[in-house]
Amino acid sequence: MTDSEIKAMEAQHGEQRTITKLPGSNFIVFRSRDYAAIRKLALHPRIFPSISDDYTNDRESWKPTESELLIYLLAKDDQGIFGFAAFIPQTHVQYGAHMAFLPRSYGNLALTAFKEMLAWMWRETKARRLVGEVPRNNHLGIRFARRAGFEFYGINKRSTLRGGRLLDQVCLGISKPDLLSRQDESVESRA
What we know:
Elements: H1 3-13, E1 17-22, E2 25-31, H2 35-42, H3 48-51, E3 71-77, E4 80-89, E5 94-101, H4 108-124, E6 129-135, H5 139-147, E7 151-162, E8 165-175, H6 177-190
């Protein structure tokens, strides 16, 4: 994606910000409907097995859902796009969150980019809660979500089919930070 394409996306989909929170690493987070770029990233051999199940295991025919209701955010640095998140509205204030990052960004870069995506959601939408379900055996995915601030709230038993086996999914969620502080203040004022 060229700089002019990114600027066009910014004009249509919201502010693009250059993030410089990591020494020697600048990146941007922006909304996109570039479904070809999202598909290319999702089909990466290290990503697709983690985001697919027995229903969506055909790599060649898989494509991202195209809808104005979905919010796709991309992270891009000087080497190109290295991650995306998809936010799917479940209610007016709650979105399901899905993310994927290339191996070259694993660690602080991916974590910082995902936190910026969360900040984008809090700033640009009416979202008050983001939730996700991660297969119980995906320890890296669970740890990543927890490091980003998501908290465990339950187990969705036998809810995804992988390799012919029904697996439990860990339910994780995060609430908008300023909403939590206002609720805490409200509770304290009633005490």
